Amino acid sequence: MYQENVEGYSLINEAAFAFGAFLARSKEYQAMSSDKHSARFLNKLKMERVRTMLTHTYPYPHEHSRHAMIAVIMGCLFFISSDNMHTLVEKLDNNFKWWSMYACLLGFFYFFSSPFLGKTIQPSYSTFSRWHVAWILVAALYHLPSFQSMGLDLRMNLSLFLTIYTSSVVFLFVFHIVFIGFWHLGLVSRVARRRPAILTILQNCAVLSIACCIFYSHCGNRAILRQTPLERRRSSNSTWLTKLVQIDELKDQVCSSWFAPVGSASDYPLLSKWVIYGELACNGSCPVTSDEISPIYSLWATFIGLYIANYVVERSTGWALAHPVSVNNYEKLKKQQMKPNFLDMVPWYSGTSADLFKTVFDLLVSVTVFLGRFDMRMMQAAMTKTCDGEERKELLYDHFTDMDDFWFDFMADTGDGGNSSYSVAKLLAQPFINVPLDDDLVSLQRGNVLLIGGDLAYPNPSAFTYEKRLFCPFEYALQPPHWYKNDSISVEKPELPEGVSDLKHYDGPQCFLIPGNHDWFDGLNTFMRYICHKSWLGGWLMPQKKSYFALQLPKGWWVFGLDLALHGDIDVYQFNFFSELVKEKVGKDDGVIIITHEPNWLLDWYWKDDTGKNMRHLICAFLKGRCKLRMAGDLHHYMRHSCTHQSDGPAAHVEHLLVNGCGGAFLHPTHVFSDFSKFYGASYDSKSAYPSFKDSSRIALGNILKFRKKNWQFDFIGGIIYFVLVFSLFPQCKLGHILRDDSFSGHLGSFLGTVWSAFVYITEQSYVSFTGVVMLLVAAIMFVPSKISRKRRMLIGVLHVAAHLTAALILMLLLELGIETCIQHKLLATSGYHTLYQWYKSVENEHFPDPTGLRVRIEQWTFGFYPACIKYLMSAFDIPEVMAVTRTNICREGMESLSRSGAAIYYASVFLYFWVFSTPVVSLVFGSYLYICINWLHIHFDEAFSSLRIANYKSFTRFHIKSDGDLEVFTLGVDKAKECMCLMSPGAKGMEARQRLGFRAKIDGKDESSQKVSKQMVCNNIATRSYQHCKNC
């Protein structure tokens, strides 16, 4: 177990690990000791708890580097604030310009980093964003005047950090290469075969370098001269309390005593030519040269030695494999293993998701190439056996007709977030659920049949999405038979358990599914492979062989599952099968429930369209009032409408309309469809909506507040778009008039005038930016739904692009003004591209003396690579200096003076900062656009709520056919799907499972009867409150 986490620990964790092992040995000694008093004393110390705190807790070793980084930064901030903060306040008290610059800079960087705060560092975009932000923020801050006014010169710390960091990376890479070579020669054990993660080495080197820089800020690189015995006696007379009051003397004592090198260079003759010496700092006469080792070099060598020693011991002796795991860590590991590894909600606005690009490609191919030319439903009809009786056996299932008390469930649109899908699937799997109804406790039995209404996996149908987003949550909710193999293909369905002859004798839950539009993106290939040619969805048996079916239920009830494909209608072969079935099998007093994926009664009303003509002909001309209920998903909310019977109105062809697409996908709004009232000429009233219209409108506000937090991967698209919009405007060489104004109104007027001038330049002279504006305008107009008129679409698109363009222009001018201000105050563009390196070389010999010529020898041995590497690394780090120097050259000599490589470097450096500024703003503007459209214009209902990725408000519908033939309908909703879910034991029964679920229900509606026909339907809307999977999670 420990071997999986052995590699790549940070240096601080290594020391803690060794101490933790010592404590573990102490605990073992305690167990063997016969001294009761000693044992009691060690128990009071709670050694196990201490040891657990010191050993690793997180599964990612990068987390330790983050904690070490935070500790180092906090210590540095404390040092600065305690000594020099008052100087900053005095210097900047009356300088509004610098305060504004700090507020803008830190504000943009904070909003850019806000989605990643509090998340575990992993090798991902969030890790890159952290390092990117730290890099360019420090590179910008050290040029501003605050740190110099506080007495802290960051140039020395930055140059020292880059030098130590480069040396550490090279040294450790050489060490690992040599160590792997020893493993190939057989000189170390097989444990050394595992190679360390490169990212771990880089982060350890960063922590080591920062620690050395912080030590230099506190103690410098002073050579510690040895004291005489008399001096040591005099210094020992002062008490610690006295030193504590005199903080400077205490700091000197810590630097000279606690972190001083052990011995001098004369004590190690063999190493005297391979060390860096300390800077002389003494009172009175000083020796010509120092014989004392540099404390910075000593600290660096100590950390490197600890890393190498720990790595060698772990990999060559297997000591780490024998390290005991604490009880607390074992319990945490056990709980972690019991927690399902579900996928998160699909990031629909991700600019880096390969699944989304594949989804778009599959959709384009399906619509433009195969739609109308190839239909899998036609292929299914061609593969069906020719005999009418055999054909009906593959499409009609009548083995439920003899059951007296029958229950069945309906859900749709599952296979998005694992937690939300599992929350519904676990409720469906319970043997029964007790809910209060009319001051009574009603027991709702698990459905004999589960009906799923399409969109089984998002965003596209594939083996990965079906297995991870559909099968995985259902298998955790209800396990399949032990003899079933997940990778098996069912040749002869149904595959019944041993001892069961046919479906009539199988008493377990069964499942029937229809495909949705997302299942048709690959031409129904994945649906046929995983649904029609597999037998089990978790613990539910899947007998069906085609993508559509008919179920004959007890007491004269029928279920027709229709496949609408991407056409929004049934094909001729489906129409022929169901129409013949109605004429031959369905009685005049029977009731039919039709299941489709799309609720065309709502969508046709919304889009002002007329789809499903074949389906309407089937319902109106063949069923003739026997369709009691139509159910669908596709819209991820719950809504129920019932026909209002009017004496002078037309007869209703469908009694009830029910939409329940809350099986696990993101939430859709309900308030957009609040005005629906007509279908097939009859009038309908809204009986229930979940969430309510008011809550739905309130939830839409999250697009303004949470769009970027939910869709931070949208940065890749938004940042590039904004940069293209202002690409031709860099650099702005004439900004002096903005800075010369004396009043705030004058500054603001000049600024807005410059924004307008930039817009005019784009329209009249720019090529790249003008092309970007035109392409964005076309995309924005096409993005507006076709529901509204063409003029309104163009107006909305123009306003949308105008908001983005204005924001991009303002951000461009703010960036250029910041650079111009620093140039005018001689903070940037003072001595060329290598300013930081030249300054460091000028002070290196003074602060880091090298009497033996070590640096010269290294430069000769590396053929000049050593100083050149650090030189260009410092230049690459100092992005603001590169921007300012290049900008000055362009403004003085023109863009033609730059080479292609120079222009590429300039625009790349500008993009690094502009991307940080633009990504929070583009998300804010786009989120505000979605909020206005969904709440004011009632458009973009799909786009505005898919961005929120809401895993809550989930529900399913449970039906009960009573012995007298009446149909009861119960809808159960889950307000909040918990992220932390503990698996239940397989033997949990109904009431026990219900109690562990913490189930609590509330009645939303009263009983309601349908019209007086032979079949009655009673609808009860039940929504759970404060649902949670396990109270101990």
Write structural notes for this entry.
With 1033 residues, the protein is of the alpha/beta class. Helix content is 52%, strand content 10%. Strands 1-9-10-11-12-14-13-16-15 form a nine-stranded mixed β-sheet. Strands 6-5-2-17-18-20-19 form a seven-stranded mixed β-sheet. The protein has a two-stranded antiparallel sheet with strand order 3-4. Strand 9 (549-552) and strand 10 form a beta hairpin. The longest helix has 38 residues, at 900-937.
Notable characteristics:
1033 residues; alpha/beta; nine-stranded mixed sheet; globular; disordered N terminus; disordered C terminus; Metallo-depent_PP-like; Calcineurin-like phosphoesterase domain-containing protein; Calcineurin-like_PHP; transmembrane helix; membrane
Task: Compose a concise summary of this entry.
Residues 410-611 form the Calcineurin-like phosphoesterase domain. The protein is of the alpha/beta class and 1033 residues long.
Topology:
Elements: H1 11-32, H2 36-45, H3 47-54, H4 62-92, H5 96-113, H6 125-141, H7 145-149, H8 154-185, H9 198-219, H10 229-237, H11 240-245, H12 247-258, H13 295-317, H14 327-338, H15 354-370, H16 376-383, H17 388-395, E1 396-397, E2 406-411, H18 418-429, E3 432-436, E4 441-445, E5 449-452, H19 463-477, E6 510-513, H20 525-532, E7 536-537, E8 540-541, E9 549-552, E10 557-561, H21 572-584, E11 591-596, H22 600-607, H23 613-623, E12 627-632, E13 638-643, E14 654-660, E15 678-679, E16 682-690, H24 693-699, H25 702-710, H26 715-725, H27 736-740, H28 744-764, H29 768-783, H30 790-824, H31 835-847, H32 854-861, H33 865-877, H34 879-893, H35 900-937, H36 941-946, E17 954-961, E18 967-974, H37 990-997, E19 1001-1003, E20 1017-1024
Parallel strand pairs: 1-9, 2-5, 5-6, 10-11, 11-12, 12-14, 18-20
Antiparallel strand pairs: 2-17, 3-4, 7-8, 9-10, 13-14, 13-16, 15-16, 17-18, 19-20
Domain Calcineurin-like phosphoesterase: 410-611
Protein name: Calcineurin-like phosphoesterase domain-containing protein
Transmembrane segments: 68-86, 98-116, 128-144, 164-185, 197-217, 712-731, 743-761, 767-784, 796-815, 904-932
